[in-house]
Amino acid sequence: MNIPRHYRGPAEFLVGGIFGALLFFAIYGFSVLDPADIGWCLAENTDTGQHFIGGWAFLRDPWRWPPGIFHGLSHPDPASIAIIDGIPVAALAVKLFRGARPEPFQYLGWWGLVCFFLQGGFAALLMRRISRRFFFRLAGIFFLVMSVPFLTRYPLHTALSSHFLILWALYLTLGKWNGRSAAVWTALLVLASAIHPYLAGMCLPLYIGVTLREMLRRIGRRETGAIIRMILNWAAATAAVLLTAYLLGYFSIGVESAGCFGQTRINLNGLVNPVDWNVSSFVAPMPCLPFVENIYMGLGLLLLVAAALPKLRHLFRRRSSLWRRHGLTVAALLAMVLFAVGCRVCLGRMVLVNFLPPQWYIHFGRIFQAAGRFAWPAWYALAALAVGMAGRIESRFGKSTLVGAAMLLQILDIGRGIAVSSWAKNYMLHEREYVSPYAGIRVPEKAKRLCHSADDRDFCDVGFFALKNGLVTEDFCFSRRFRRTPGSSALKRLLDTGEVEADCIYLFTPTERAEIEKRHPKLKGAMISTCGRSVLIGGEAESSGNTQTCNQGK
Fold first, then answer.
1. Exposure check for the chain: N or C terminus, fewer CB within 10 A?
2. What is the pLDDT of residues 92-142, one digit of tens each?
3. Torsion of Cα atoms, 124 then 128 then 132 then 137, to 10°
């Protein structure tokens, strides 16, 4: 069937999207799309549970200004739906239908499907600008969707699974600059800011590279009007991103670093090392220092990179037109790779270079502490180019045969590891009915607050128990810290003074209980042991017993 030229792009986008959606259903099934099915979100107290609890608290809270902030998880201070990695663009859309959704409600499953669909769709658009042959464009879709950085991200970090934004940015960098593309770039940056700040941080250098290239070209031609339009575009894009950040509550909350610069980074053997995710059926994880970002390519893609290496070297030769047309884009990709490597350059367990960067660089790096993620754009660019260049090599076995063999090898290498990985298995085989292990705690009518310290072992269970019983919490485990009101913690006041507030239910860790019993012996008989924590119900001087039921089932 001969498809008209102007329909071919949308048709290939749809083909890529369908492939991504089919892969999503093959791994996760259909039940994750049920908004009322929350068990898979809360399995094992992972980051997915953090995102679900934050999104649920945001949906339950009344509308506020700016619309991205909410109360309930960090009393008395507000929190931001962006801080909790709650996919603000989806959360704001769902919140519009407050009376027409079940309680509790999860939208992470549908967002996963959207990410897989758009991953395939934008992979198709990107490959249209790299390869002229339909078969190799289909192969590009396959490899860009069967990507280890993408497949190992969902559902652990649902917002960060939006890799289609990176593919979209790479697609735009290969196109012509005009008024329409300028508007699309602005929309992309706004959308990335409304999904996850890391993704906005990856798209921004590509945008800067493209616009600087065009600016230098206009200056060389002395096109004053075009230069003014470029400056206005920069101003409009900057204003739009800042406005988005304000509406999502970034400036209202005051985000601080939750760790150190380079908390996660890439290893120099990362492309051939599946590290500790065990996604490869043939390559064992190689020893390396901890906190390494997984950028393993898979044996099929590595085969294509090796086969296309002569063509890639020719493409990057000194006098290649690539440098004239896309030199600043390549520079932006390399800059992000250097940032991802960090100040400790490692090959396996060997530290090759260890240096102390300037203080301003460290401060900037702390904003994006998981610096290794910034290698993703270069990973996708290399993968797409390898497939495109494979269509130009001279092979005695035939180019199509080589690419087909590489696709089969990729499936054999990472297919089984992705399908039965610990994360995927958890979300496919868990018990669907979730019951908080703290469900046996009696909640008096006067109780309004749940006062506890953040504990990575059970923060999802604690957050669910609080929201289910209409309580606010003081210290939820957010993905990033933010500035808090000094002295706002009722738990700290109890530890310091022994003052029990009547509207509080207190949860203590064993260490905190020992400290309280040491400082305030009169409270010893009022505490209840449950699920590895100790409970103190404010306003009750005595307890009817020293234990309550701990429901271990989920």
1. N
2. 999 998 877 888 889 999 999 999 999 999 999 999 999 988 999 999 999
3. -10
Task: Judge whether 168 and 199 are in contact, CB under 8 Å.
Answer: no
For 531: left if phi > 0, alpha if psi spans -120 to 50, otherwise beta; the answer is left
Q: Which two tokens stand for residue 546?
A: 């020293």
Dihedral (CA of 332, 338, 342, 347) sign: positive
Q: How far apart are alpha carbons 55 and 32 in whole angstroms?
A: 16
In whole angstroms, what is the distance from residue 484 CA to residue 313 CA? 53
Q: Are 36 and 110 in contact (CB under 8 A)?
A: no
Angle at 484 between CA 502 and CA 189, to 5 degrees: 130
The rounded distance, in Å, linking the Cα atoms of 24 and 414 is: 15
| C-alpha dist (Å) from residue 473 to 138, 329, 343, 458, 490 | 49, 45, 38, 14, 10
The amino acid sitting at 360 is W
Residue 512 to residues 275, 432, 474, 494, 506, Cα–Cα distance (Å):
37, 33, 16, 11, 11
- Complete edge-to-edge strand list for the sheet that includes strand 504-508: 472-473, 449-452, 504-508, 533-537, 528-530
Cβ–Cβ under 8 Å, residues 527 and 534 = yes
Spatial separation of the C-alpha atoms in residues 218 and 225, rounded to whole Å: 9
* 206 pLDDT higher than 90: yes
Decide: helix, strand or coil at residue 485. Answer: coil
- What is the C-alpha separation between 259 and 256, in angstroms, rounded? 9
Identify whether the C-beta of residue 162 lies closer than 8 Å to the C-beta of residue 113: no
Is 450:429 a contact under the CB 8 Å cutoff? Answer: no
Domains of the chain, by residue range, sit at: 5-31+110-175+256-427, 449-537
Give the whole-angstrom CA distance, residue 529 versus residue 507: 10
pLDDT of residue 123: 97
Q: What is the mean pLDDT of residues 264-284?
A: 86
Q: Which of 251, 257, 283, 254 is nearest to 270 (CA)?
A: 283
Give the angle subtended at the CA of 167 by the CAs of 338 and 271, to the nearest 5°: 45
How far the first Cα of the chain sits from its last, in Å, is: 52
User: Can you tell me the distance from the alpha carbon of 123 to that of 163, in angstroms, rounded to the nearest whole number?
Assistant: 10
Rounded Cα distance between 332 and 335, Å, is 5
Torsion sign across C-alpha atoms 393, 398, 399, 405? negative
Q: Compute the 3-state secondary structure of the chain and give helix, strand, coil in percent, each to the nearest 5.
A: 55, 5, 40
In 443-524, DSSP assigns E strands to 449-452, 472-473, 504-508
Q: Which two tokens stand for residue 449?
A: 């607050």
- How far from 472 is each of 6, 463, 465, CA to CA, in Å? 54, 9, 10
Beta-bridged to residue 346, according to DSSP, are 351
Residue 123 has, within 13 A of its CA and on its CB side, a CA count of 31
Contact 407, 143 (CB under 8 A): yes
Task: Read off the pTM.
Answer: 0.92
